[in-house]
Automatic annotation (TrEMBL):
The active site is at residues 140, 211. The chloroplastic ME isoform decarboxylates malate shuttled from neighboring mesophyll cells. The CO(2) released is then refixed by ribulose-bisphosphate carboxylase. This pathway eliminates the photorespiratory loss of CO(2) that occurs in most plants. PANTHER family: MALIC ENZYME-RELATED, NADP-DEPENDENT MALIC ENZYME 1. Residues 1-31 are annotated as: Disordered. This is Malic enzyme. Residues 308-575 form the Malic enzyme NAD-binding domain. NCBIfam families: PRK13529.1 (NF010052).
Length: 606
């Protein structure tokens, strides 16, 4: 035994031997990024420095709880620290699921899941992956929204890095305080627009934590490579400013140069500390910063904005899925958005781009099929001078319309998309109008094709409380005709003896696979074509059976397979565009993506 494999008694630094051959996925998980183990390395057992004894049971990355075998308990000085039974990971999972189901309140379930992640990381991910449809709403939207609102009260331990105005000039040092070194994905928010819940300041941390849990569970990026960050420049939320349990800076938001300088220091420090292949996902920034940050850093860093680009890719994939049900092409449809912020304009632009690719018409032309309504009404050319820059491309020639209902009646869209973050805005009148004129005014070619009069209604705002209309309302008000998807999950609805299964048009379908594809190819920039590739990757996973059931998205239970396909598509595009730095290009990118994915099964320790 050489010095690197020596085990020491509790209290000292020690080393844990892992048997790479005895584990499923254990030898693969570290097999990507710069750390890819060579065949040679795999012949000798790996060694990782971790605690032993009591500290091992307190180390969430290595703790297995009752699953430690007696041999392991002897070898790592934990015999007697656990009750005598040895339990399999599967049985532990069964017990935990049973316990979580006992809780009545979603927030209790959320807290139980977060506690588990802090205690036993692999068990947390195994539980989440194996029960993704049940537990996604617990660790992600809608419950994560409530968790952020109450984050000060439920805060126990830090789960990510907090960079506030107080850290100005010291951000590089702060990054170095994070215990993990080989970071591949950062999700960062400044908490100003958390879901549709508004400014939650520093308590927005729940979002990067939740998104990164999905990077691992859905996309197979290993947990130690993920870094959640919240930038705290204050909050304008009076309630939080007056809340004694608020965890952030109690001041109003910094803006202008002060804000830009802090962000600039952050972006430079990230590049300096982790290199240029670290992926930075901007999440839940307010419109007035989101577009500018994306424009500024997309040419110098590997960045994307999930709310603008991730959401766009998932919606485009859903439209492609819906066309399989409706017939026709994107160009046969007319789109109306309520909400002209990040998601609205992001989706609109990606649809226009895809239409332009399909028809070879310039994007300025294809944009004309797409209309947006903001808080002041339909965006039209007469409003151009007073519009924010990201709205201007959508200001078409048309008389004004001040309400959504007026706009719907004037434009007669076939697809209605809600992205305003405001709940209950698709009223009965609005939804009924969608049915009414879809009966009479579709182009003949489309009316004759397949299913007549099926308006497509996407109520994308999150969490559930902000949904533009519920699934039940959509089906009821359209007499079961609507094709409906929402951002947050809704249960299936029975209407007139038929069960309708709503889709979940949430960027969670896209960002884990997109991120995996960028990481495994060593991409250095995100290009729009990669978003289209991600979207195609998702759309390609909608099966004939899904279509027959009226689904426009594949079920989340297949998400790891879906993510691998998305990753392979994205990586292929990165190589094609000359933006991939990992050379040589693996021949079979799908197999390669799958082989790189983290699996949470326990490892055997020698
Ligand atoms: O987090 C989600 O569920 C989707 C999203 O990005 C948002 O609503 O901002
Ligand atoms: Mg978001």
């Amino acid at each position: 035994m050489d010095s690197t494999t020596k085990k020491v008694r509790p209290g000292g630094a020690s080393v844990l031997d892992l048997d790479p051959k005895s584990t499923v996925g254990g030898g693969v998980e570290d097999a990507y990024g710069e750390d890819r183990a060579t065949e040679d390395q795999l012949v000798t057992p790996w060694t990782i420095s971790v605690a032993s004894g009591y500290s091992l049971l307190r180390d969430p990355h290595h703790n297995k709880g009752l699953a430690f075998t007696l041999k392991e308990r002897d070898a790592h000085y934990i015999r007697g620290l656990l009750p005598p039974v040895v339990m399999s990971q599967e049985l532990q999972e069964k017990k935990l699921l049973h316990n979580i189901r006992q809780y009545q309140l979603p927030l209790q379930k959320y807290t139980a899941m977060m506690d588990l992640a802090e205690r036993n990381e692999r068990l947390f991910y195994k539980l989440l992956i194996d029960n993704v449809e049940e537990l996604l709403p617990v660790v992600y939207t809608p419950t994560v929204g409530e968790a952020c609102q109450k984050y000060g009260s439920i805060f126990q331990r830090p789960q990510g890095l907090y960079i506030s105005l107080k850290e100005k000039g010291k951000i590089l040092e702060v990054l170095k305080n994070w215990p993990e070194r080989s970071i591949q994905v950062i999700v960062v928010t400044d908490g100003e627009r958390i879901l549709g819940l508004g400014d939650l300041g520093c308590q927005g941390m729940g979002i990067p934590v939740g998104k990164l849990a999905l990077y691992t569970a859905l996309g197979g990026v290993r947990p130690s490579s993920c870094l959640p960050i919240t930038i705290d420049v204050g909050t304008n939320n009076e309630k939080l400013l007056n809340d004694e349990f608020y965890i952030g800076l109690k001041q109003r938001r910094a803006t202008g140069k002060e804000y830009a300088d802090l962000l600039e220091e952050f972006m430079s420090a990230v590049k300096q500390n982790y290199g240029e292949k670290v992926l930075i996902q901007f999440e839940d920034f307010a419109n007035h910063n989101a577009f500018d940050l994306l424009a500024k850093y997309s040419t110098t860093h590997l960045v994307f904005n999930d709310d603008i680009q991730g959401t766009a890719a998932v919606v485009l994939a859903g439209l492609v899925g819906a066309l399989k049900l409706l017939g026709g092409t994107l160009g046969d449809h007319k789109f109306l958005f309520l909400g002209a912020g990040e998601a609205g304009t992001g989706i609109a632009e990606l649809i226009a781009l895809e239409m332009s690719k399909q028809t070879k018409a310039p994007v300025e032309e294809t944009r004309k099929n797409i209309w947006l309504v903001d808080s002041k009404g339909l965006i039209v050319s007469s409003r151009k001078d007073s519009l924010q820059h990201f709205k201007k491309p959508w200001a078409h020639e048309h008389p004004p319309a001040t309400t959504l209902l007026d706009a719907v009646k004037a434009i007669k869209p076939t697809v209605l998309i809600g992205t305003s973050g405001v709940g209950s805005t698709f009223t009965k009148e609005v939804v009924e109008a969608m049915v009414e004129f879809n009966e009479v005014s579709l182009p003949l070619s489309l009316s004759l094709s397949l299913s007549l009069h099926k308006p497509l209604i996407l109520a994308l705002s999150n969490p559930t409380s902000q949904s533009e209309c519920t699934a039940e309302e959509a089906y009821k008000w359209t007499q079961g005709r609507a094709i409906y998807a929402s951002g947050s999950p809704f249960d299936p609805v029975e209407y007139n003896g038929k069960v309708h299964v709503p889709g979940q048009a949430n960027n969670a379908y896209i960002f884990p696979g997109l991120g995996l594809g960028l990481v495994i190819s060593g991409a250095i920039r995100v290009h729009d074509d990669m978003l289209l590739a991600a979207s195609e990757g998702l759309a390609g996973q909608v099966t004939k059976e899904n279509c027959e059931k009226g689904l426009i998205y594949p079920p989340f239970s297949n998400i790891r397979k879906i993510s691998a396909h998305i990753a392979a598509n994205v990586a292929a595009k990165a190589y094609e565009l000359g933006l991939a730095s990992r050379l040589p290009r693996p021949e079979n990118l799908l197999k390669y993506a799958e082989s790189c994915m983290y699996t949470p099964n326990y490892r055997t320790y020698r």
